[in-house]
Design brief:
Chains A, B: This is APC family permease. Chains A, B: Its main location: membrane. Chains A, B: InterPro entries: AA/rel_permease1, APC_K+_Transporter. Two copies of one chain form a homodimer. Chain A is an alpha/beta fold. Helix content of chain A is about 65%, strand content about 5%. A five-stranded parallel β-sheet of chain A has the order 3-2-1-4-5, sandwiched between helices. The longest helix of chain A is centred in the middle third of the chain and has 34 residues, at about 295-330. The radius of gyration of chain A is 31 Å and the shape is elongated. Chain A starts with a helix and ends with a strand. At the A-B interface, helix 18, helix 19, helix 20, strand 4 and helix 22 of A face helix 18, helix 19, helix 20, strand 4 and helix 22 of B. Strand 5 (about 595-600) of chain A pairs antiparallel with strand 5 of chain B, so a sheet runs across the interface.
Chain lengths: ~600, ~600
């Protein structure tokens, strides 16, 4: 699922913002093509999830697919109407975290944030797993290597995102349009077809383990709700639309709802009519594609388009997580570091963390899409519910025209998504939902602890209070650790003389002969600065200097240690230089309170 | 094999040096117990290597084991006499690298160094693999998990060495004595035994693939020579002996030779008499142990002692590699960093690198001892040969009394080891020896290139020449990047005022409201220092400051950027602080020539 383009548009390289030029913004149709990818790609696994849930009661139970799909479509309609109101109230977008923070208070916003993080990770995992299923439907030889396919896909996404993608909404349009055409083609051609179904994959037998009771129907319903993930993406991306933004976004949301509903119902009708049951190696969607298009090139093309769209859906998380993390960092709920959204090294942490978590999940479930779906849907439903409740609260506080009517719509949405969430949680608890039940509170705790720490630090630093005036005229001593008399020594002593009231050079030597030679060279150079030589029989460089610094750092002056660094021209030589200086700097910073200064000396080799 | 205690004694924590007290030094017998572990442990895989090489010509060919062992023992005798002379000429020890550097010039010493590195890695791998064989002989259930046993053992050694072991020669004495007793017990009890052999392991059939020709005998001979690895350890460790050092060390070398020869011949006689052939799951040594001791507790104890001694043999490399690396670093052939032998972080690099290389080897051969032996023996024979040739050169130059006689002894040793090395290389080229043929020149090239780089840098830095006098009175400007007005700002501005002639504070803000608030707070504080605010709409912190610094760094003054760092009391909070400062420091150091200063501010939280 996804907050897709909303986040993508906010990414470092593409700071598309409202007002930066209308022509960069989207029309309703463009918005549909660019923002519906996550929601629509859910049809690759949603209907299959229903079928797989029902089939434990035998293939006869599969007739329940259609009514369950109709119930899900009803929920979809409620969500679409409800998100239409979210768009009107939050035209700046921002997603569940921003909404919850504004309307629902601290704890709820932490819940929203935690569920969003879970969501991002699961979007990657589920989309890749479903993508591997689609890929293996086209190439059955890969059926046993789905995990490998997933991990290769993940490595690809990670590499692309580490390099930084110049993403644009428009890149996503073509695959989305192809996907819509392919799926609607399946529905239309499937319905007008009279010849028998083209069978792909190996048949499996399904003995009825249990009867088609109420609980099973609830399970199938909650699994199928995974098809709804992603419908909130448009509401998060209102600023990317062309004016009138709200109207266009609402229209797009409506089109998305209609399209998704049409696809789901159409596929369910085909499943019922053709008695489609799960088969080995191919997905339900691939079976329907084979029924509509035969098993020629169109079948392969459809499966490849589905794979591509799922890969792109996974990719949206890589754009989304850094944005969420920077929002959390600005609220002091994650390390401030992550607030620096434009800094590439920081951005990479998020990419790598996301990739690792998704890889762990994929390996844990052996790339089985349907073991991920319970975990996936819960995070999404938390987000749905919080957005709706926030809106109810908003109406109740602001009381605009017809507020009761509006609150009723959002209240119904909240009730339905809560219900679906609770059903999901109870029916799927042992099948994986427990992971979410543990992970979400742990993350909330983490955010809260980080916030508490920053508050304590702010207290101690006296943030918001005017400090005493700075100390003046304390005087300063600059210590320069040196190994030999050279141009490097000259460079370092010159810089030290500019900075310090007094300068002293210090050398560590294990060998008395070398010590004598150094002292003689120093005397011949005569730079007007004292040289202290420390004896170190055990060939330790760092500890003797630390001891020396601690000895002189007693007299109230500002002490600085100036470490000259030889900087090779080529990065590959870096291991050959600097390392001793860096080691010394690290230890000095950990063990003393002196200023540690690094002075580069650039080589031509 | 090993340079064992020689290196261990030189390790960081135990700077045992000649003259530090005679009671710490070893008598001949103590030296034998402490220094022979590597050489003696070779009997766990040497004889087996012969048997495995011969058996491709059918079990009948195994009668050749005894004559081949006698040939190897002859080579051993030559090596022992030869190393007796090495001890006399190099009483300071130092190993093949030091000897080659002194007597044989640059390229040869690089060859010695590279072969030693190969050796250290292979000592770890072979000893662990053979240890796993011995362990699995006691516990046959582990026969399929030898690789896992090896990797667990490797992890154990790595952990112990990362923590730092307080090693002492005396710790090794008890296991060595137990090992000698156990092996001699096998020989003696085996020979006087009249009851039938206790059979362990599953029998295997050996159809004769080839006839027992000359080539096969050469192969078996060269494989068996792996039993000689480690006999140079005593010559490397002369300084650890009690005076008269040379005499004691020579006596120890002689005892080691006698003991090792006795064991090898004894085991070969038993192999011949009892028609011992390779069996599933148990080693040849374990079969002989079962024959001598039966299959009761003594059998288990023997296998466990063998395992332990092999583990300790592997451990010697972890002590040896850092010493070799520091020698190379002092000769400018490895990064100077590694010359800092006493610095723990540096020492850890060597440990981890060694463990990784050994792990790769073990995984590559699936912990099969006998696929490692060709690689192993070649490095060892290079070392043997270079030591002998160096000595021949020494005699020819110095021409002491009876120099021709002495040169003849070492020349014979060199000839025999060269011969064995060439046989090994040609007969085992495709079986793994090619790895060494590639790795050794590559490493020599690496050392040479590092040396060339350091020479060029020395030229550029004017090492050995007296530089111009340092610049004086250039004046200085200290730039302090700040986020808020706080005690941290006060601390940083105070330090900057002590160091700079002029100080300016600089803040980066994305939000105009915050900028205004900061400017107001600054004016109220009024620290007597100018505040420049840089606008950064894209939430980048680093680039705007770098641009600012580059702008002001034009006027010839010494520029320093002083970055205050909040240091949390607990390490676990470090991710919450400093990171922005570190990022800024890293980029400034890479892209500008200014002095980058870090000022710690320690928190109580």
């Amino acid at each position: 699922m996804a907050y897709g383009l909303a986040r993508r548009e906010l990414r470092p390289r593409v700071p598309l913002r409202p007002g930066e030029g209308e022509k960069h913004h989207l029309t309703s149709l463009e918005g549909l093509a660019a923002l519906s990818l996550d929601a629509l790609s859910s049809v690759a696994y949603g209907p299959e999830a229903i079928v797989l849930a029902l089939v434990v009661a035998g293939t006869g139970a599969l007739t329940a697919t259609l009514p369950i799909t109709l119930a899900i479509t009803f929920l979809l309609a409620a969500l679409v109407v409800s998100y239409g109101q979210v768009i009107a109230v939050h035209p700046d977008g921002g997603g569940a975290y921003a909404v919850a923070k504004k309307d629902l208070g601290r704890t709820t916003s932490l819940l929203a944030a935690a569920s969003l993080v879970v969501d991002y990770v699961l979007t990657v995992a589920v989309s890749l797993a479903a993508g591997a299923d689609a890929f293996a439907s086209a190439f059955p030889g890969l059926a046993d290597d789905k995990l490998a396919v997933c991990l290769i896909g993940l490595a690809l996404l990670t590499a692309v995102n580490l390099r930084g993608v110049t993403d644009s909404a428009r890149v996503l349009m073509l695959p989305t349009v192809l996907f819509i055409v392919a799926i609607l083609g399946i529905v239309v051609l499937g319905l007008i077809r009279s010849h028998p179904v083209a069978l792909v994959g190996t048949p499996r037998s399904f003995p009825a383990h249990e009867s088609l009771g109420f609980l099973l129907i609830l399970k199938a319903f909650s699994s199928g709700c995974s098809a709804l993930t992603g419908v909130e993406a448009i509401a998060n991306a209102v600023p990317t639309f062309r004016t009138p933004r709200v109207r266009r976004a609402q229209r797009t949301e409506l089109m998305l709802g209609a399209l998704l509903g049409l696809m789901l119902i159409g596929l369910a009708v085909l499943i019922r009519r053709d008695h489609v049951a799960p088969r080995g190696d191919v997905t339900v969607l691939a079976q329907l594609a084979a029924g509509a298009y035969g098993t020629g090139w169109a079948y392969y093309a459809t499966n490849l388009i589905v794979t591509l769209v799922l890969l792109l859906a996974a990719n949206t998380s890589f754009g989304g997580l850094p944005v969420l993390m920077s929002l959390l960092a600005r609220d002091h709920r994650l390390p401030h570091l992550f607030g620096l959204r434009a800094e590439r090294p920081v951005y990479r942490y998020g990419v790598v963390a996301l990739a690792l978590l998704a890889a762990v999940l994929l390996i844990a479930v052996d790339a089985d899409t349907h073991r991920l779906i319970p975990l996936f849907a819960i995070g999404v439903f938390i987000g749905f519910t919080l957005s709706q409740i926030g809106l109810v609260r908003h109406w109740a506080t602001q009381r605009p025209e017809r507020w009761l009517h509006r609150a009723l719509i959002n209240g119904t949405g909240a009730l339905l998504t809560t219900l679906a969430g609770v059903i999901l949680l109870t029916t799927k608890f042992l099948e994986g939902a427990w992971v979410v039940v543990i992970a979400v509170p742990l993350m909330m705790l983490l955010f809260a602890r980080v916030e508490r720490y920053y508050t304590a630090v702010g207290e101690e630093l006296g943030l918001g209070r005017i400090p005493d005036p700075p100390d003046r005229w304390t005087g300063s001593l600059v210590i320069v650790p040196l190994g030999e008399v050279s141009k490097l020594a000259r460079h370092a002593v010159s810089a030290a003389l500019a900075l310090g009231d007094e300068v002293v050079a210090v050398a560590v030597h294990a060998d008395p002969d070398k010590t004598r030679a150094l002292q003689e060279a120093w005397d011949r150079w005569n730079p007007g600065v004292r040289l202290d030589v420390i004896d170190s029989p055990h060939r330790s460089l760092v500890q003797p200097i630390v001891d020396y610094v601690q000895r002189v750092a007693q007299d109230g002056r500002q002490i600085a240690v100036l470490i000259p660094e030889v900087e090779p021209r080529h990065r590959r030589y870096e291991i050959l230089q600097n390392q001793r200086g860096l080691l010394l700097a690290t230890v000095l910073r950990a063990r003393t309170d002196v200023v540690v200064c690094m002075l580069p000396y650039r080589l031509s080799v």
